[in-house]
Amino acid sequence: MYPVSQEIFYQDPRAIFGAxxxxxxxxxxxSSHQMxxxxxxxxxxxxxxQVLTSKHHEVFLNDKKISGxxxQVLRxxxxxxxxxxxxxxxxxxxxxxxxxxxxxxxHLEPISSSQQDxxxxxxxxxxxxxxxxxxxxxxxxxxxxxSGYPELDEAKRTKRAWERVREWELSCWKASRAAAKQExxxxxxxxxxxxxxxxxxEYCQAVSRVKNYIRAGDIFEANISQCFSAKxxxxxNAFDLYLALQxxxxxxxxxxxxxxxxxxxxxxxERFLKISGRKVExxxxxxxRPRGKTTEDDQRLQNELLQSEKDHAENVMIVDLLRNDxxxxxxxxxxxxPQLCGLExxxxxxxxxxxxxxxxxxxxxxIDLLSATFPGGSITGAPKIRAMEIIAEIEPTRRGPYCGxxxxxxxxxxxxxxxxxxxxxxxxxxxxxxxxxxxxxxSNPEDEYAETLAKISSLQRALHDFVN
Length: 468
Description:
- This protein is α+β, with helices and mostly antiparallel strands.
- The chain has a single domain (4-182, 196-467), classed as Anthranilate synthase.
- The protein has ten helices and 24 strands.
- The strands form two sheets. Strands 1, 2, 3, 9, 10, 11, 12, 13, 14, 20, 23 and 24 form a twelve-stranded antiparallel sheet that branches. Strands 4, 5, 6, 7, 8, 15, 16, 17, 18, 19, 21 and 22 form a twelve-stranded antiparallel sheet that branches.
């Protein structure tokens, strides 16, 4: 079936979403930085009719424990709700959306870990949405879509779909009127003391350990991150932190999610996987420089990045890894690299970005692709499995949402997921955020440490602005 839709008056999606950000299950997938091939659409998903979560090898559907692997359960649930897209409209018109934590790899690879799970983030939190509000940021148009699920009877489903559209059309109108009068909530938190799970010396020693593994022939590259944390006493004000981050660091895969007692505030620049029909695309990032203080300095840093043999080698290694991963589920000879080590510039950093595309095999679905490639190679290393084993050995705490994925899987089978970097994860009156870098044989430990600080600079500024 097709969803029903109603075009609504176009307004700033964040102004509308702010009225609903405190509701559990609320999601904003926000393209706040438009660029070629990315950033055209923003989506609001609210009021899921069911939520799938996983933790400690246990799976829950609406808080009811069920048996099965989380990827398989997600596959089975998606199959219950087929949907066709309305043409020439935003591509997410109903489906599953949420986040996959990095630690879900335990369901895919037998990697042992003694890391501390300090924050106890869910391994997966996915809502199923019969109502989605889609915004075309280029044409400045917006629609409310509803599939009418979970009703399965056609007449009842259509009736529910129209009821939901009218309900949310009114809610959006009220939210937009309220937004015009709304003032930013002032944080009552007066200080923000940030700590890391590595000292500088410890991080440099970790880089040296990875280089020893490279010399021994175990790997070519591994991504080692440090985790920063601070007190955060007001999870219901997390959307104000999101707004502060977007002013400083707009990104094509920005997102705000609130599930149970976990909020994610993301300004990710990196697409993990996109499916449109049978076409799949990945956009790995490897290679980073900070922005310059002057135009001349900024140009110098761009040129330095483009000419860096080390950064080019890091990127090419991950491109080869992803070509291999995609070849497992794509048609023979269909995997191509239309962009290799292209320069992309953001508010606080320059990146080298490659694009890998392919055509999925006939019977391959979104979950098959996700299982074949998760977690993303750009934040693990190469060879992937051994690099992940070394990460589990060296990093003292579990990554949680960091380096996992955020996005949607439509009921029609299309998918768009980011890599969860440049992201705050909030739970239990605490905010965490991480940054890492690819360690290769000629990595300088001091430089690698400095790169992690460059990557979190916008996050630190957002926290400062939130408090002040």
